[in-house]
Each structure stands twice: as C-alpha cells, then as structure tokens.
Design a protein that fits this description.
Layout lengths: L2 H40 L24 H14 L5 E6 L4 E5 L10 E6 L5 E5 L2 E4 L5 E5 L11 E4 L9 H6 L2 E3 L4 E7 L2 E6 L15 E7 L5 E10 L2 E5 L2 H5 L4 E8 L15 E3 L13 E9 L3 H13 L4 E6 L6 H10 L4 E5 L6 H12 L3 E6 L4 E4 L1 H6 L6 H7 L7 E10 L13 H4 L2 E2 L6 E5 L22 E4 L6 E4 L5 H4 L46 E2 L2 H10 L16
Parallel strand pairs: 1-8, 16-17, 16-19, 17-18, 21-24, 21-25
Antiparallel strand pairs: 1-2, 2-6, 3-4, 3-7, 5-6, 9-10, 10-13, 11-12, 11-14, 12-13, 14-15, 19-23, 20-25, 21-23, 22-26
Helix pairs in contact: 1-2, 5-6
GO molecular function, one term: glycosyltransferase activity
Enzyme class: transferase
Protein name: Glycosyltransferase family 92 protein
Length: about 575
C-alpha cells in the first residue's frame, strides 16, 4: 500500500471517529430535550399537534410546531452549534448558492435546504455540498427550487422540525441573479478591486473608469459611502478606499458598483455579495524576502492529477501554490492537506463563481503580489520542459526558478512567455498509471498558444488579462522564449474518460461552452468534435504527429525509484 493511500485511510478513519462522537453527543442532547417536552405534555391540560415529518424528497405539509419544542431546538443549536443564518443567495443555472454569515466547517453533510411553496407548503431537500468561503463566511449549495417554490431557500440541520418563516424575514431574503451581481472584492493598497457581473463591457479591452463608482455599506447599517473608480476592464472595477474603512478596521463592508451612463445618469448600485473587512486595510508586516516563483491555477475536479503537477514543478523551483477551486467535489482539500503535510506550500482558495477564470487570475495576482516576485498562470495539465538542458546534459532541477531569476532585476520585463505543444492520447485508452508526463508521448508538430509567468507589480491597474497573458504597464514588455530554451507540454487531449470532462463547462469567461453550437472553429475546441461528448472511434490515435519522449526520459531518470521504478505520485500498490 502506498504512503499516500495509508495517509488518506488514516484521515478517513479519524473523520469517521470524530463524526461518530459528534453524532452521539448530538443525539444524547436531543433525547434529553425530548424527555423534557414529554414532561410538559403530561403536565399540560391541552393536547397540541406535533409536526408530521417525512424524510422523503416529496413535498411535505407542515403544521405549526410546539413553541416549547421550537425553543428547545433553538437553545440546542445555540449552545452546541451555530444558528444557520443565510446572508445572501445567488441563483446559478444549475444550483442555488447560499452564503452564510458564519462558518460551519467544510464538508458538513447534515444540512437540508428548505423551500417554501406558493401555498406555504414546504419541501426539504438535502444540500449538494458545503464549504468554507472566507475567514468569516461559509457557503452551501442547494438544488434549484422546483416549480411553484421560491428560491428564497432557508437552511436547517437534517431531521429538525421546519419552522414557519416570519414575514419580516421573508422580505429580507435576497436572491441575486448570477448575471447581475458583485461577487468578490479584495483590498490592494489604497484601493479596492471589485469583481462584478452585469456591466456591459467589451472583452479584452479597458473601460473608462469615470463611468463607474463603488458604494460601501458599513456593516448592517444604512450608512453608505461612495468613491470614484480609477480603473476598469472586463469584470473588474478598481476604486479608491473610503476613509470610513480606514477608521473602522473592525467593521465589515459590502461593496457594490454604480454605473454612470454617457449622459451622466446614475443607475442604482448593482446587487452585491462582495465583502471587505477594515482589518484587511491595515498594512501587514512583511515576512522578509519574497518567494522568487509562485504559481496560480484554477481547477475543477483535478485532484488525481494535482500531485504529479506540484511535485514536478516544485523540483523545477516553484515555491508557492495558489489553488483556486471552482466547485470541485473529488477530495481536492484532502489532497492539498496531504501535500502541505509533506512541506509543499499549497493553499486552496474557494472560488464558487462559474466561468470567471480571468477574474480569478486577476484576484490571484493581487493576493500574490506581496508574497511573490513572479507568478506563473498555467493549468494542471501543463508542464514546463527544457530541451536545451536535456540535449546538453545540464541539470534541470530549479531550472524554471533560475530562468525567471535572470529577469528579476529587469524593470522593463514584466512577463515571460513560453510556447505550448499539445499532446494527444498517444495510443492509450486508460489513464496512465505513471502520470501524464510518462504516459503521453505523441504530440502535434506545431506549437499552439503560450503560457505566461508575470511580475504582479508590473501589471496594469485594471488587471486586464486574456488567461494566457496579462496587460502590462506602459513601457514594460514581455520576453518570448525560444522553443529550444523552454516549452510547455500541454497534455490537452488525454484518454477519452479524462478528456470528456471538458464538455461539462469551460472556465474562461469569453469561451463558449462546448455543448453550445457556437464558434466551432475556435482553437479552444478539439478539432473534429461536435457539441456532444461522444468518443470518436479513432480518438486514441488523434493529435499524434511527433513522438517526443524528452520529458518522459527526464522524469524517469530523476524521479523513479531505482529499485521498483515507481514514481512518487503513483497511486498503485507498491510491493
């Protein structure tokens, strides 16, 4: 059994033990509460009707529960668990996102979503997933509301009695349309960068910031402050920080964007779930020397491939990793925790916003600026390789870090671009057990696109990017590497079981999902495929023009165990 699997099993056993203790304590307290309720009935002159509860997924009518039982449940959750307080709701095409004003812990499976019908009937469905969101808030994903049920979904622990929602609370329930909402904000020096859907702006172009302002609502009060935008592009608006935020470091601020049309007419602020905290504006003490090279990526369900990618690029000199998790449900957190326990500097950032890769990269550029001199933006199926090192017998360890270090003192170079070679299935029909670098060895002849490593402090204030590269400050340029110096092996067309996941959803904002019958000639699509995930008969032989074992040979000579031949990221049993 691999050390990886042993570690995973120990974590599962520990979680099961903790969960068992948690449930035992909870039900013990619940039994005590029920006992006191029974005493109340025996001493009462009247008989009340208990709520009838169904554990099925069918709609179930509820009648008012006993006030004494409701208060018992309230005190029960208030003492042992936090009250479930839904602060905002965002309607996505395939699910409803609930944002809680407090933390509940990641992976809480004992939650239920409560839907209200037009006739006050209720429907209780299990939640899809839950996660930590930021330092203070958490998120829960619920199924979309069925027909004739409201999207003003409430949350409760499974098995609890459904309470009737008060009218004043119903009026405060906010459900935001994903196509028109402010969704993230991050402080950057004396400014705040706000990420917002619903502003009509051209892709890959900067906008006139004079048409935008930011509105800051202080805590839960009606007090508001407005500041002017200083930069805008795509889904990003950068505004001056308000004085009230600097004076109230303990407060939370809701940030939204106001649009001013060319005639000077001001529209109401867009709805927003974006938050900043006054404490974030306090300049933190720098921990010393920055990391020379960091990497940021956005992923969905890439846990099985993450280990190889991080271990290999750490060997090349990457020191810090920012993983933007776009709704994964394949155990990515456990994978990251295991890597962290092995001294890889990896952090996971929950990013629940669909089709916002450009915005996510802009957000990461702001976060990484204080920690890193250089930040690479590339995917988990992309691996840097150095042909000259191989041909001349030079060591490749720390080669990527050494390369970028040569340009750190060059103030006029803000980006290093490297061409990509796309690899095909290479005759395989199942996922290669030794990883992508060893399994896929046949590629297309000509390079396709490029990947970039950038200096965050040399990017424009609008943070404009096209995923593959950022816009740089005036007077700053980029360096394009020759293929003989460095190249990116892009394992783009893998075995069909892996590749077909690309049909689910594309993460880039301005790239059409493959199920849609648009832009079928785009380079983002696989040539010859339509809009359905149907495997072509000759898939395993496609995209194969040049057999190239350069990176495979490098990996086997530097990572393989000399006795067993196994690689450190393999998940199979070792004897």
């Amino acid at each position: 059994m691999t050390e990886y699997e042993n570690g995973k099993k120990r974590k599962v056993r520990n979680k099961q033990q903790v969960k068992g203790q948690f449930l035992s304590q909870r039900y013990l307290i619940l039994c005590c509460c029920c006992f006191f309720v029974l005493l109340f009935f025996l001493s009462s002159d009247r008989i009340s009707t208990l709520s009838v509860r169904s554990d099925s997924l069918r709609p179930s009518l509820r009648v008012p529960a006993l006030s004494v039982l409701s208060s018992s449940m309230d005190s029960f959750h208030g003492g042992r668990f936090p009250a479930l307080s839904v602060e905002d709701r965002v309607q996505f095409p395939d699910h409803l996102l609930l944002i809680l004003s407090h933390g509940i812990g990641r992976g809480e499976k004992n939650l239920a979503c409560v839907y209200r019908g037009v006739k006050e009937e209720t429907l209780v469905l299990p939640s899809i997933s839950s996660d930590e969101f930021d330092e203070f808030r958490s998120i829960v994903r619920c199924p979309n509301a069925p027909l004739n049920y409201s999207s003003s979904v409430e949350l409760q622990f499974r098995g609890d009695l459904v309470k009737k929602m008060k009218k004043e609370k119903q009026s405060r329930c906010r459900v935001h349309n994903w196509e028109k909402v402010g969704y993230e904000a991050v402080i950057d020096g004396d400014t705040v960068v706000v990420f917002v859907k619903g502003l009509t702006r051209r892709p890959h172009k900067e906008s006139d910031p004079s048409y935008y302002k930011c509105q800051f609502e202080i805590g839960d009060s009606e007090e508001k402050e407005v500041t002017q935008a200083v930069a805008a592009a795509q889904e990003v608006v950068r505004c001056v920080l308000p004085e009230s935020l600097k004076l109230n470091p303990e407060m939370m601020f809701r940030v939204s964007v106001i649009h001013i049309d060319p005639r000077g007419r001001t529209t109401p602020a867009l709805p927003s779930v974006a938050r900043i905290y006054g404490s974030d504006s306090i300049e933190k003490k720098k921990s010393g020397v920055k990391h020379e090279l960091c990497v940021c990526t956005m992923l969905w369900n890439q846990a099985p491939f993450l280990r190889e990618w991080i271990m290999y690029h750490s060997w090349l000199g990457v020191e810090r990793w920012f993983i933007y998790d776009n709704n994964s449900d394949d155990g990515i957190q456990e994978e990251i925790e295991l890597l962290s326990s092995e001294n890889y500097n990896v952090s996971r950032h929950v990013w629940p916003w669909i089709k916002t890769q450009e915005a996510g990269f802009s957000h990461c550029a702001v976060r990484a600026k204080e920690e890193c001199n250089w930040v690479g933006f590339f995917d988990v199926d992309e691996f840097y390789s150095f042909p000259t090192h191989r041909s001349q017998g030079l060591p490749s360890k720390n080669a990527l870090k050494s390369l970028v270090s040569n340009y750190t003192s060059w103030d006029l170079v803000g980006e290093i671009r490297t061409d990509c070679h796309s690899y095909g299935p290479s005759g395989l029909t199942s996922v290669p057990s030794q990883g992508v670098t060893v399994g896929y060895t046949c590629r297309q002849a000509n390079p396709e696109r490029h990947k970039s490593i950038v200096r965050p402090e040399l990017l424009t204030s609008s943070l404009l990017n096209e995923v593959h590269h950022f816009q740089l400050k005036e007077g700053v340029g980029h360096m394009s590497l020759m293929e003989s110096v460095a190249v990116v092996n892009h394992y783009k067309y893998q075995v069909w079981d892996t590749f077909k996941a690309k049909f689910y959803r594309r993460v880039a904002t301005y790239v059409v999902d493959w199920q849609e019958n648009q832009n079928q000639g785009s380079k983002d699509r696989a040539p010859g495929l339509g809009t359905e995930a149907i495997e072509p008969p000759d898939w395993k032989r496609r995209f194969c023009e040049v057999w190239d074992t350069g990176l495979k040979d490098l990996v086997m000579s530097n990572f393989a165990d000399q006795v067993t031949g196994y690689l450190p990221w393999q998940r199979q049993q070792q004897e």
